[in-house]
Amino acid sequence: MVAQACTDIEHRSRAGAILRRIAAYTGVTVATVGLVTAFAGSRAHAADIEYDTASAAEIEAHLEDLEARRDDAATSLTGLQTQLTAAQAVITAATEDYGTTGAQLLDVTAAVESAEDELGAKVSTLVEYAQEQSDKYAEAEAATETADQLEPQIAALEAQVEELDAQIDEAEAAYDEAAEAEAEAAAAAEAEAEAESESASSSSDSGSTAEYSADAATAAVQFAKDQLGESYVFGAAGPDTWDCSGLIAGAYGVSGVSLTHSTWAMWDETSAISRDELQPGDLVFYNGQGHVAMYIGDGQVIHAPKPGDVVKISDLDMGMSIDGYRRV
């Protein structure tokens, strides 16, 4: 009974020593188990954010938090993958050393033959060989257990890194959109203030000196409509591609009216009118005089909007700030 107890104690002690030796070799510690759970608990999901209503600064802070979480997860993943590789190396080495049954038989036979003729020596040799094989098996078993623990943790961290990458891409796109919208809003506000100032200074002659040329205006509207669906190209003035001022200059050019291919110059070359005076062929300027369209009646304009778009008809109030109304 005492001998059996001693044997059990020795077995547990030896197994513990082997496990500690494997752990030291692979870099695995008790703290490693449950690492993914601990990581997920220590870094909760970033604060919820509504991209549609958040400012660029708020989205930027959210993005930085996501990137920090992604870096933490990637670092943990690298550590676990290193540990798994080491454990698998132990398993491979033990398998190579342990060998097949035939190889073991050859090893035993060689060990016995090399021992002294005395039976006790041979038995001792066999016991030592058996103990060596038992230790190798235990090492491989401990390394296998470690690998089994690491693999699901690695899979969970890989999924976490992938999800964070997707969230980072989404946040970056939202940040770009918010920053662009804020810049456009600031520019529009500045343009509106300038337009109000200019409108106040020119209100005295609004409509009083602007003579309407029906023939030229009608021809210009028809010309512009004939270009519907043709592509926008910056700096283009026909015959098949246009930018906003190029379309207007081309439309009035058919009647011999010369307008400079520039929205700002075109503003200076035309006369101010009020919104109530708008007639087909009159011009509407937007976004700090950076865009121009032609009024065609019924609250609509025709214009060449932007890269990637085509000549088309839009509402007079199409979302851009209006600087003023001019007559050629």
From TrEMBL:
PROSITE patterns: NLPC_P60
Coiled-coil ranges per UniProt: 56-83
Gene3D superfamilies to which the protein is assigned, alphabetical: endopeptidase domain like (from Nostoc punctiforme)
Protein's GO biological process: proteolysis
Any one Gene Ontology molecular-function term assigned to this protein's record: cysteine-type peptidase activity
Annotated Low complexity bias: 198-209
Compositionally biased intervals (Acidic residues): 174-183
Record InterPro entries: NLP_P60_dom, Papain-like_cys_pep_sf, PG_Endopeptidase_C40
Residues spanning the membrane: none
Family listed: Belongs to the peptidase C40 family.
Name of the protein in its database record: NlpC/P60 domain-containing protein
Organism: Glycomyces terrestris
